[in-house]
Amino acid sequence: AQSVTQPDIHITVSEGASLELRCNYSYGATPYLFWYVQSPGQGLQLLLKYFSGDTLVQGIKGFEAEFKRSQSSFNLRKPSVHWSDAAEYFCALLPGTYKYIFGTGTRLKVLA
Amino acid sequence: DAGVIQSPRHEVTEMGQEVTLRCKPISGHNSLFWYRQTMMRGLELLIYFNNNVPIDDSGMPEDRFSAKMPNASFSTLKIQPSEPRDSAVYFCASSHPQGTLNTEAFFGQGTRLTVV
Q1: Which residues in A lie closer than 8 A to residue B97 (C-beta atoms)?
Q2: E strand or H helix at A13, and its extent?
Q3: Do A90 and B43 touch (CB under 8 A)?
Q4: Angstrom distance (rounded) from CA A102 to CA A4
Q5: Which tens digit of pLDDT belongs to each residue from A3-45?
Q6: Contact indicator for A50, A57 with CB cutoff of 8 Å
Q7: CB B59 within 8 A of CB B49
Q8: C-alpha span between A31 and A91 (Å, rounded)
Q9: How far apart are CA B19 and CA B65, in angstroms?
């Protein structure tokens, strides 16, 4: 079955600390993977995407993600978190031509 | 480009009333999605249009929900009659396929619907 799992519902980090949000997927072929961010009252904004090639993907706002086929993971990272990064983060899989599968999201809280 | 535009941003209506949500996709995008977001169920795909044609409406909850895309720049999602359990945030998204594969979906800011 095709699925996306985000094991952490909530994560709290201090401003300036590093961040890693986990995403695991289940899919038999080459996955197309995305990370989106949703600020309160807003829509989802694309942070980065992986289609093929280099397994370390750079995105906007200083985020990066690493695709690891052996672990079926696509974890999102940021070396130093800013207070404005507080939001909900969604990992998504595109297993076919249009039907995105979204994870349940990880809500990030940033302590001053 | 202004992005995907949804209206209204907020809608409060009484149970039994008709509700119409509107969406203008990004110009040139020929794929359009309607999603519903709730705390309990997360993001659910309601319906997918390609070139103005409904391709997959398997996520539409029941006959009270209907969606149309009369042209490439406009889509509506209608709920008639509305019920309190329809309260949610409804998102419209569009994308431009590269070859046979859709690229990323671009989301509107959503319509928060409250049915009382």
Answers
A1: 97
A2: strand A10-14
A3: yes
A4: 6
A5: 999 999 999 999 999 999 999 999 988 889 999 999 998 999 9
A6: yes
A7: no
A8: 12
A9: 10
